[in-house]
User: Fold these one by one.
Assistant:
Number 1:
Amino acid sequence: MRIDLHTHSTASDGTDTPAELVRKAASAGLDVVALTDHDTTRGHAEALAVLPAGLTLVTGAELSCRLDGVSMHMLAYLFDPEEPALLAERELVRDDRVPRAQAVIAKLNALGVPLTWEQVARIAGDGSVGRPHVATALVELGVVPTVNDAFTPEWLADGGRAYVEKHETDPFQALRLIKGAGGVAVFAHPAASKRGRTVPESAIAELAEAGLDGLEVDHMDHDPDTRARLRGLAKELGLLVTGSSDYHGSRKTCVLGEFMTDPEVYGEITRRATGAFPVPGTGGV
């Protein structure tokens, strides 16, 4: 089985609609794909409506968290999307995205970049606006050559010249909310140091004690030595190991299925989940 448990659509900061994403996943030969847009489940219904036969959809979301000043992301799988406490927290995080983006634009303007809210809003469309949309606008303006080049201290990286904090959930609270909604929690790209500061391994151990299910080890932002180190840490802490593309369409260079999750690990994720279940495709409408 070919299993990719981390992808994004236009419901957040990807460039493919949910329908386009699941069709591309099927064309790429995937058997299972997870749709994990940032802090939202809005893309699930569209993806399910056209889910190709032979492809199974795992519903999920990537939750924005912060621990001791360090930004981190928590992948939540197969939770009940209507569970009130988790729903309220997702909405709180999502609602803070617009004023945060506007504050980032103001900082860029002060740095001499002629960026407007209208340009960023056009790029975001109906998705949850975020830094990747601002980064895309910077590419359009010729300020940086690629989206990744915008995520540096000079521009949008954590602590960078145009960085602005947003509401992010304490990861221990996120774990309680995910578990309360019947979901499974995996720490996304925990050692992606190119994105900024990362949480120490001691904090990962504390999260494991608090109910963390797994670590996303096989990821484009982890080099081979990092993956080996994280795999050892996961074994030591009794955590599941996942692999994913973190696909964003044309906004990033990664491709669907670039990294994948072992079928036995996927099976354990589905066994632990009680809030929702994987949905096999029937050909859509």
Number 2:
Amino acid sequence: MEYCLFTEPQEGFSYDDQLAFARSAEQHGLDGFFRSDHYLRMADGDPLPGPTDAWTTLAGLARETSRIRLGTLVSSVTYRVPAILAIQVAQVDAMSGGRVELGLGTGWFAREHAAYGIPFPDKRFDLLEEQLQIVTGLWSTPVGETFSFDGAHHRLDAAPALPKPVQTPVPVIVGGGGPKRTPALAARYATEFNIGFVTEDVVAEKFDGVRRACDTIGRDPGSLKLSVALPTIIGADDAEIERRVAAIGQTRAQFDNGANLIGTPAEVAERVERLAARGAQRVYFQLLDLRDVDHADQVGAELLPLLPR
């Protein structure tokens, strides 16, 4: 089992806030720090200091950490030209010494695209498949050869397919709740399938679906890592838990929706054990208040030692 911190910096947090969380993850022995890839705050409230770009942030963290995995959960195919994304990720992989992971998805936040003038087509699964083909194709093309691609959305003419990432392959995460196309794409192109923000029964259902998709194309389902991402609040007692729930503008009843992880470290560890029994091999603890570094420290110092490995 692997355990990572997962954050949503677009909700009003700086690079330094993210750095503090990444350093906490590294200090306490967690496996990674992952962030969303968004440019617009979703909740009401103060928008300052404004957005931080995911891959610019990860480049900085690559030089300021030494052990943890770093990645997006997930980047939207609408934000970047796929060949440029392949270069960005390969460069950050080199900057980190081979610790980068690329989460890639269709994107969903229409208002964000409108705000920044980013095209947002109604149908995006074909875009996702082409991006996966291009990014993985560029990375896997032998040095000295070129990569060409002629698709409905993108065309590459004898691209040099450089630079190469340090890792072979770079881990690619595909996630989502779609019943057919998402598991099929994960089975064909990804090293990890992720499902987030759902109950344990739905987690098990989605894991079963992607295993079947692997079987359909003759891939060993055991070669695909299975992961779950869940909003998380822990505390030593009810008062600490209530304070953290209030800090993100919710009540405990709102947050404790049957899917999210909430409770003492021992109570959350029990939930994680059930997720592991359902097939999860990695858990992303989504912490929503990046100014509460003590929360990140508590996950590492008090929750992590109780978790199955």
